UniProtKB/TrEMBL annotation:
Gene: rpmD
Alphabetized PANTHER family for the sequence: LARGE RIBOSOMAL SUBUNIT PROTEIN UL30M, MITOCHONDRIAL RIBOSOMAL PROTEIN L30
Family membership: Belongs to the universal ribosomal protein uL30 family.
Listed name of the protein: Large ribosomal subunit protein uL30
One Gene Ontology biological process: translation
InterPro entries reported for this sequence: Ribo_uL30_ferredoxin-like_sf, Ribosomal_uL30_bac-type, Ribosomal_uL30_CS, Ribosomal_uL30_ferredoxin-like
The keyword Ribosomal protein appears for this protein: yes
A Gene Ontology cellular-component term: cytosolic large ribosomal subunit
Species whose genome carries this gene: Pedobacter cryoconitis
Amino acid sequence: MAKIKITQVKSIIDRSERQKRTIQALGLRKINHSVEVEANAAIIGMIRKVNHLVAIESI
């Protein structure tokens, strides 16, 4: 599988608890924090749920 870089670009303040937990599960902590993860079905599904809060780059 390919690796992708996920960067949080918007705050999770005033977001639903589900979106906050999804961001946390992706390993993101604060704005402009990035993580590199394997692109599998579970990760892609989490990104779809919070795509308005993150930026994605393929590596």
